[in-house]
Amino acid sequence: MSNAFRELLRKVGSGTHTGEDLSRAEAKAATQMMLLQEATPAQIGAFMIAHRIKRPTGEELAGMLDAYEALGPALQPIESAYPVTVLCLPYDGRSRTAPISPLTSLILTSAGVPVILHGGDRMPTKEGVPLIELWQGLGIHWEQLSLDRVQHVLETTGLGFVYLTNHFPLASGLVTYRDQIGKRPPFSTLELMWSPYAGDAHVVCGFVHPPTENMIRDAFARRGITNFTTVKGLEGSCDLPRDRTVIIGANKSEFERLCLVPRDSGFAAKEVPLSPTDEWVEAVQAVLAGKPSELTQSAIWNGGFYLWRCGVCPDLDAGLAKAASLLTQGAAAQKLDEISKATQSLVAVQS
C-alpha cells in the first residue's frame, strides 16, 4: 500500500464537509502513482469513484495532464503551414449517431492541416464503437504501427493516431477499473483534453455538459494552452450536430462563444444514425466517391467549419464550399489512399 497515495485519497474522499481539492502538484503525483501502479488496486478504484463524486477541478485536471505529459507518448513537432489539430473524442465511442471525425480528418489533411487523433479499444462503460475500429474498416491499421512509425505517417501524410493500448500502456492499464467501478472516472474528462503532441497544437475538445467545458478552460489557462476549441458535439465528440444549434468555444488570444445554426447554412436535418461498421465504411466510401447523401452533408458541415476554424478559409461559407470541393473532386479520397499505402508499407517493414 502507498501511504503517500492514501493521504491524497483521504483528501478527495472525505465527503462534502471535510473533503478537499488537490493542488496541481498533488493531482500530478496521484495520477503518476496510479499510472505506475504504485497505488494498490483498492486505492485506485476508491480514488476514481471518490473523485467522480467530488468532481475534478480545473487545477486538478491541469495536474493530471502534467502527469500524462511526463509519462505518456508524444509525437514530435512537424513543419506545417497550419498548426496541428488534435481532435479529442470520448474513448468510449459511439452508440447512437454516425461518426464524422474520420471524414473531417481526411478533409483537413487534404487541405494541408495536419490532424492527430487518439483513443483505445472498446471502453467501459458505454462500450461504443471506437475510432480504431473505424480506421481498421477503412484499411488503416494504426494498431500495427509503433509510435515512431506513426510519426513517419504524420510527417508524410499529415495524419497520426496515438493508440492507447500500444503507445500508452500505462494508461491502458487503468481501463479495467472503469468496468469495475461502473462509472466514467475523471480520466474520461482528461482524455478530452490530452494532446499527445510535443509541438504547439490546436486542441479540439468535445463535451456534453457545460461544467466540463468550464473545467477544460480552467485547466488550459493554468497550463498556458491558448489555441483550443470546445464543441458540444454528438455524444460528446467533436462532431457538429445538425439537429440543433452548435455551441462552440473558440479560443486563441481570448475566448469567443459561437452558436452555429445549421438551418442558416442549409444543413438542418436529423442526425445520421449509427450503423454496423461495415455499412458505415460503405457509406464513407460513397461520400469519398462524391455521391450525395445525408452523411455527405454532415461531412461538409463538419469539414467546412473546421477548415474555417483552422484558418484555411476566411469564413464558414467559404469553408463549406471548400469541403464540398475536396469531397466531390476526390482530394479526400486520394488522401485516404495515400495514408493507406503509407501505413501498409510501414507495417510490411515492421514485419
Automatic annotation (TrEMBL):
GO cellular component assignments: cytosol
Example GO molecular function: anthranilate phosphoribosyltransferase activity
Domain of life: Bacteria
All copies of domain Glycosyl transferase family, residue ranges: 96-332
Keyword line: Amino-acid biosynthesis, Aromatic amino acid biosynthesis, Glycosyltransferase, Transferase
Database matches in Pfam families: Glycos_trans_3N, Glycos_transf_3
Matches recorded under InterPro entries: Anthranilate_Pribosyl_Tfrase, Glycosyl_Trfase_fam3, Glycosyl_Trfase_fam3_N_dom, Glycosyl_Trfase_fam3_N_dom_sf, Nuc_phospho_transferase
GO terms (BP aspect): L-tryptophan biosynthetic process
Residue stretches making up the Glycosyl transferase family 3 N-terminal domain: 6-68
NCBIfam families: PRK07394.1 (NF005635)
Protein name per UniProt: Anthranilate phosphoribosyltransferase
Organism: Phormidesmis priestleyi ULC007
Lineage start: Bacteria, Bacillati, Cyanobacteriota, Cyanophyceae, Leptolyngbyales
